[in-house]
Amino acid sequence: MRNLLLALAIAAVAAPASAQSVRAGITAWQKGDTAGAVAIWRPLAEKGDADAAFNLGQAYRLGKGVPLDLAQAQGWLERAARAGHVDAQSTLGLLLFQNGNQVGAMRWLKAAADAGEPRALLMVGTALYNGDGVPADPVTAYAYVSRAAAQGLVPAKATLADMDAVMPLEQRQKGVALAQSMAGAKRPVPAQPPTKTVAGKLAPPKTAAAKPAAAVPKPVVPAGGKWRIQLGAFGQKKSAEALFGKLSVKLGGRQAYYVPVGAVVRLQVGPYESRAAASAACASLSPQPCFAVAAP
């Protein structure tokens, strides 16, 4: 025991001061002292610490410890992203995508996807399949989505199942081979695709790209849309209401729909203007089970 305490003391002394402080902020956050965590991270972020900048951006994005401010969130996330922080790149890309800046979003999502981040892999793969802002490339799209699904991302598994239903087997096999080549031996790789193909077409509606903006505006809920996200099925409506209450801040003011189906109530949220936008929303909620559904 004495040797263990000595080892921990030596490790604490040896760890960089900034790392110790970032961890101190995380500890404060986990204890509910979000304002204290922000106070620890801010000076570190201002000095260029990428982890602190990412955490500070998340605080502004969630409105915890500071007022909710998406422009500030974007600024701090971008600082971290430029320093190579993969989670910041992915989170920034999703934030930009959800607020209409698809061009800026794809830049950061591609960087995170190249590093193997599953949410980014799903988003870039979906864009490649649909040709949204990039040339359509179903084989590479299948490779990206396969890599995301292999890491257990639930929305990616649902998207991959849709792709399995409509893509020719030869394309899917090429996609798996490409995914394995991209991932290398140290990262999860997908299994071979199923051989059965169902006639049909997977073509989520396209989302028009917006010009890059200097700051992220507050989310604008579309007046209409043909897509929703489904967050679960519950035996009691109050359970669905509780989950929506927990996630509502992250859902940008969108409406909850409580859809009775037999003995259960499905919680759906929307509207979203396209399947891609709904998938982006699901990815931002990970690890919460979520998938895109067409509105009735």
Count up the helices: 13
Q: Strand order, main sheet: write it out.
A: 2-3-1-4
How much helical structure, as a percent, in the residues?
55-70%
Give the strand content. Answer: 5-15%
Uncertain spans, ≥5 residues at pLDDT below 50?
1-15, 195-223
Q: What is the C-level CATH assignment of the domain at 15-83?
A: Mainly Alpha
Task: Using the alpha-carbon principal axes, give the shape.
Answer: globular
Number of strands: 4
CA-based gyration radius: 21 Å
Describe this structure in words.
- With 296 residues, this protein is an alpha+beta fold.
- Among the domains are: 15-83, Alpha Horseshoe (Serine Threonine Protein Phosphatase 5, Tetratricopeptide repeat); 227-294, 2-Layer Sandwich (Alpha-Beta Plaits), CATH 3.30.70.
- Helix content is 57%, strand content 9%.
- Strand 2 and strand 3 (264-272) form a beta hairpin.
- Helix 6 crosses helix 13.
- The chain is globular.
- The relative contact order is 0.10.
Short overview:
By secondary structure, this protein is an alpha+beta fold.
Chain-wise SSE layout:
Blueprint: H1 2-14, H2 17-30, H3 34-46, H4 50-62, H5 70-82, H6 86-98, H7 102-114, H8 118-130, H9 138-150, H10 154-166, H11 169-183, E1 227-234, H12 237-247, E2 255-261, E3 264-272, H13 275-285, E4 291-294
Antiparallel strand pairs: 1-3, 1-4, 2-3
Helix pairs in contact: 2-3, 3-4, 4-5, 5-6, 6-7, 6-13, 7-8, 8-9, 8-13, 9-10, 9-11
Protein name: SPOR domain-containing protein
Signal peptide: 1-19
GO molecular function: peptidoglycan binding
